């Protein structure tokens, strides 16, 4: 399956298929440096396959730290210096092979080194079907996630589903959080269909039919980022579940998409309390479903809401000192609203009580 962005210029393809990496040869630059920056775990698991597909002697490989820890300022500095010592030029190209964190990190290197060079996204996780598209790249600050970043379009997204075969359960649940978010943004029917196909962790871990839902997620994301590339309006809806999600993720270090799923649940409690879309029944139904899939809801029991609230105060959607959250007001209908500290505390205590019932 090939998707293509439909901007006025500088469009890029998104190639989604088994063994998609074989297509990378069409995107390598001749007589220029192509440098692969790859998550060290992905490299370890797929060394032979990677060598087959990227056997060109001119391609250089740099393994980088796995997961969110690569997005630290000090690491960004050391890899920047390393790339500059390799005499890269504005015509050089970086190739990010890994999950969402790798793509964010390498994309940010590409956006900033020499004031911008090309990069290719090769996502290797379910989650990265979301993060690899749309050009958001960045690293973390001590006070919060993705607070240092840029918008920088990739030259191509090569999404090889072969990499999904080695994903651990946590990563599957994490990616599923973003797939679930895209389904909610789309329609009630897509959300129900998803829950019917994956009623438990057993079905989810077999990843059958996952391409159908990745296609749904990619199409949803593409439609939004093409309409609003720089997040002036509708793109903020893609942040559903992220305001609370980023807070709990940063505090507890659980996987991004698991935190987003908990953030979606949290947002439902606020919806209910404001007489928007949700009711106690819809919240209970999601709690039961998430328990069945093994999401770490218990983490809320020991989490310090005051600290989460401090992270929420750093969210990029905020206006002045007011926390802005994506809330659902109808089927596939969303709004960005200010929420007060009291509302956040009440919703948190209520959610904790509900998960322990
Ligand atoms: O692409 C977007 O826009 C999103 O909000 C997608 C999110 O799922 C993704 O996690 C994103 O990186 C979060 O963006 P941020 O601006 O809140 O850091």
Automatic annotation (TrEMBL):
Pathway stated in the Swiss-Prot or TrEMBL entry: Metabolic intermediate biosynthesis; chorismate biosynthesis; chorismate from D-erythrose 4-phosphate and phosphoenolpyruvate: step 2/7
EC supergroup of this enzyme: lyase
UniProt subcellular location: Cytoplasm
Domain of life: Bacteria
Domain 3-dehydroquinate synthase N-terminal as annotated: residue spans: 63-173
CDD domains, alphabetized: DHQS (cd08195)
InterPro entries for this protein: Dehydroquinate_synthase (IPR050071), DHQ_synth_AroB (IPR016037), DHQ_synth_fam (IPR030963), DHQS/DOIS_N (IPR030960), DHQS_C (IPR056179)
Known catalytic reactions: 7-phospho-2-dehydro-3-deoxy-D-arabino-heptonate = 3-dehydroquinate + phosphate
One MF annotation (Gene Ontology) recorded for this entry: 3-dehydroquinate synthase activity
Entry's family note: Belongs to the sugar phosphate cyclases superfamily. Dehydroquinate synthase family.
Protein name: 3-dehydroquinate synthase
Organism of origin: Mammaliicoccus vitulinus
